[in-house]
Structure formats: C-alpha cells, structure tokens
Amino acid sequence: MTEIVFLFAEISTEQDQHGIGFSYSKRAGGPAQYAHAKEIAGDLIGEDPSDIGKIYDKLLWAGASVGRSGVATQAIAAIDIALWDLKAKRAGLPLAKLLGAHRDSVRAYNTSGGFLHAPIEEIKERATKSLAAGIGGIKIKVGQPDTRADLQRVQAIREHLGDDVPLMVDANQQWDRPTALRIGRTLEQFGLVWIEEPLDAYDAEGHAQLAAELDTPIATGEMLGSVTEHLRLIDARAADIIQPDAPRIGGITPFLRLATLADHHGLQLAPHFAMEIHLHLAAAYPREPWVEHFEWLDPLFNERLETLDGRMLVPDRPGLGFTTSDQCQAWTVDSVEYGTR
C-alpha cells in the first residue's frame, strides 16, 4: 500500500469556531467520497451545528437514492466528525469527556510493524521499539499461503515477547472456514488476545462457528460500511470483539449507536485505524477496550498522541485535539467552500 486518500471537512461558525473531521479510503473510493460530499455540503449552511442528529438525517436524505452505506455515508462521516469536534471545542472539553469518558487512557497495541512483507527479525525489532515507546500489545499479520509459515511466525514473535505481552494476529480475510478452524485450534497454545478477520468480512455464519468452537476470541468488523452490517455480526454472535471504523460506517453519530448495541450484547471493542478519532470513542465505551496505534497519520497533524505503560492517553486539548499540519495542506489536491466568511 503506497497511498491513502483522505477527505477532510472543516466547519466554521459565525462565532469563528472551527471543527475538523476526516474520512479516508485505502483503495479506490476517495474521489467518490469527495464528489458526494460536495453535493451535500451546501445543506449544512444555516443549520445549528449543535443539532448533529438532525443534520445527519438531513444529509442522509440528501443522498437517499445512493443508499446508507459505503461511499455515501463515508462522505457524511467527515462532516459528522467535524461537527462532534466542533461541539466538544465549544464546550471546552476533549471529545471523550463530552461523550462521558469511562477512563483517561486506553490499552494500545501496534500493528504497523507486523505486516507480511516484513522479515521476522524486523518484526521483532519493531515490536521491541513499540513496547519501549509505551505501547502495550503487538499485532502481526498472518494469512500466508503456507499456514506452517504463519505458525512459525507467531511462535517466533511469542517467544521474543514472552508470555506476558498481549499478542494478536490478523488474517485479513485470507482463510476459508476449514482452514480457519484448523489453524485457530493450533493457535490456541499462544494465548492470543484475539484472531482478527479469519474469514471474509461478510461471512457472519462462519465467524460465529469459529467464535463458538475456539477459546481464542474472534475479532472482526473493520471492513463493514454501516451499523446495519455490524448488526448482522452481533445477531449471529459472530464476534467476541467488534472492530468498527467510524469513518467507514458514517461517522461518530452511527458509531455511538453501534457502541450502545455492542455493549448491550456484552462485546469488547477495538476500533480499527484512525486512533486520532477512536481514542476518544474507546475511552467512552463502558467495557475496557483497545485502540490501534498507527503512526501513519502523524504527518497530517501538528500534535501527537502519547503512550505510557501500555496505554494511550486521552489528550486534554478540546475536541479531537488536532490541527492540520502544513504538510497536510501541501498534500491537498482539491477543495471547495460553501457559505460566506
């Protein structure tokens, strides 16, 4: 992966208050998000920015003919996140505090050092550096054509880390049902925190079978594009740990609805990517969650998140606590403005 396309929204009020939010696409789709956002953004003008639920429904109806998932709601996500950032800033509170935080820090794990293309010694080195930087857990990728290579990889990292460091694996949907069950049973010996996306993201029944058969928790949900799609996972009891992505499912407003349902069903939470947003949402979840540490977005922002003793600290800055950097501005390829200054 060499490129991620971001859609940023900045919302300003007559009182010169500002909120920022973003959505993204790791593959195709970024230009489509931008095109849809341009079509609906004018409907914001004249609205009270505190009426986030009302605005969300208005934007959904503006694009009703293209549905309530995928590109349409991912375009709305950038706007919705900016509105929540603005609301927290107006209150003078970090977003987590505005939502009602259960904690001031969240368990953090690192993924960016464990990709399949990385040699095992490099993964070990990066894992050691992550732990030294205050990150608490390590996730590595599996899902190679030769499952024996996956097992050797996991064994090598577990031996390197020791038994006490939380370790997760992520198959990125690479296994079929028989393979996932077979390798899942073998992986039990390593005391994993979870096995992530062992099957196709939409195979709720297959994930449910694994969740019932294995002692190791099953985590999935990052690729789903709406609350409705996550509900199928929940109803099928297909995951022990749900991994929604706020920009992918339409923003903070639908994320909060999903979080309520997940908590009601006793599920753990480990949001996907975008720690700048998900740290706040995880801090407000009743059950002890995890947040995914990715330094990929650091060039976009002037501020940095802190990790200490295995946890990511909720910043005390109002809103999300971020401002866009000069580099972010330099990478901007197009923009459009509505309203008057």
TrEMBL record:
Binds 1 Mg(2+) ion per subunit. One of its GO terms (biological process) is amino acid catabolic process. Its cofactor is Mg(2+). The keyword Iron-sulfur does not apply. The active site is at residues 141, 272. The record marks 245 as: Increases basicity of active site His. The keyword Magnesium applies. InterPro entries: Enolase-like_C_sf, Enolase-like_N, Enolase_C-like, L-talarate_dehydratase, Mandel_Rmase/mucon_lact_enz_CS, Mandelate_racemase_C, Mandelate_racemase_N_dom, RHMD-like. One of its GO terms (molecular function) is L-altrarate dehydratase activity. This is L-alanine-DL-glutamate epimerase-like enolase superfamily enzyme.
